[in-house]
Amino acid sequence: MWLLISQLGLLITCCPRIDIKLCIIFGGKDFELSIYDPKGSSTSKKVTCSSSLCAQRNQCLGTFSNCPYMVSYMSAQTSTSGILVEDVLHLTTEDGHPDSVEAYVTFGCGQVQSGSFLDVAAPNGLFGLGMEKIAVPSLLSQEGLTADSFSMCFGDDGTGRISFGDKGSPDQEETPFNLNPSHPTYNVTVTQIRVGTTLIDGGFTALFDSGTSFTYLVDPTYSNLAVNFHSQTRDSRRPPDSRIPFEYCYDMSPDANASLIPSMSLTMKGGSHFPVYDPIIVISAQSRFICCSFLETENFMTGYRVVFDRERFVLGWKKFDCYDIEETNTSEEERHPVSAPPAVAAGIRNYSTPESTKDVRNNNSLTSVTLRSCHLHVSLPFFFGLVSILTLLS
């Protein structure tokens, strides 16, 4: 089993190379994690400095020496460095007649990790999903295996699926990317925020990112959002607590369904709406309480298939059942009628997974691939670890 952190802003996939066994607890179950070992793979090849994918040739000792890589992060002096290698990614088609697909991908084999990588971050590495040519979606497209597009789908229990080549459906909502040619990212424009019955105007650009733990909002957007959320929440606000990052937390009503909180949605450039179906998080201490989690970004993507179309340069999204593979070929309206969230959302979701769903869903968080017009299903199981959605840029 592999536990990779999917990262939309990362240009390269990185895997640590360490000779220890890792074990995690996910959904109440123990999983032993595999560590990538190039010596244990008959298909692993080192990438030389002569490769067009070698971006740090200035660090090379010679044309045919191993190509180095180095990725640094802004938080906690976190970095990873090592050499580039090439190996096979095993995929399976998602149409009615599954076929195996072997794709060669280039990624970083980590030799030196620092900061959070020595603790809990990315036990098996980072799955690079950026727009650069060395990212996995780019490599699959360059090999002619998929369209240059992919989707990510996040379920309620923290697991999900990636579909490479998925261009979405005609009925999905969309907004264009704001492209910077020198450093292309999944940057979009938010024109308006609705909190309950209040509309907050004022456009800003934001980065859809899956490797950031929190959404960072700057004023006046943060203050407007927080004040309007608080004014429409009926529960009693708790005093600030330095142990948690959320500013607006509330004591839960004994009857969870009586804890009424305002709904939230984003209006994107072009007029499409992105409802936030789960804007709160339940924290269990001596007494349970809820916090407004517009900072905690997993909630923003939950329940959606989010499409990153790099051919049309648009972000698409649609409410989706991430566990129903067949739904890819069937109109969601036929399977599960979709309704807009109410103005005031009742009912609280905590982060415990019902026993009835653990065995079915936690054993197979499936990656998918789509071959141009054919939907494909991947045999690579992994979990989405940290997931996030919006980082405010301006």
Automatic annotation (TrEMBL):
Name the keywords, alphabetized.
Answer: Signal
What GO molecular functions are on record for this protein? aspartic-type endopeptidase activity
Q: Which residues form the signal peptide?
A: 1-17
Highest taxon above the source species: Eukaryota
For whether the record's keyword set contains Ribosomal protein, the answer is: no
**InterPro entries of this UniProt entry?**
Aspartic_peptidase_A1, Aspartic_peptidase_AS, PEPTIDASE_A1, Peptidase_aspartic_dom_sf, TAXi_C, TAXi_N
User: Taking every annotated instance into account, which residue ranges of this chain make up the domain Peptidase A1?
Assistant: 1-318
Look up the record and give one Gene Ontology term from the biological process aspect.
proteolysis
Q: Which family does it belong to?
A: Belongs to the peptidase A1 family.
Q: Which PANTHER family match?
A: ASPARTYL PROTEASES (PTHR13683), OS09G0542100 PROTEIN (PTHR13683:SF232)
Q: What is this protein called?
A: Peptidase A1 domain-containing protein
Tell me what organism the protein belongs to: Gossypium aridum
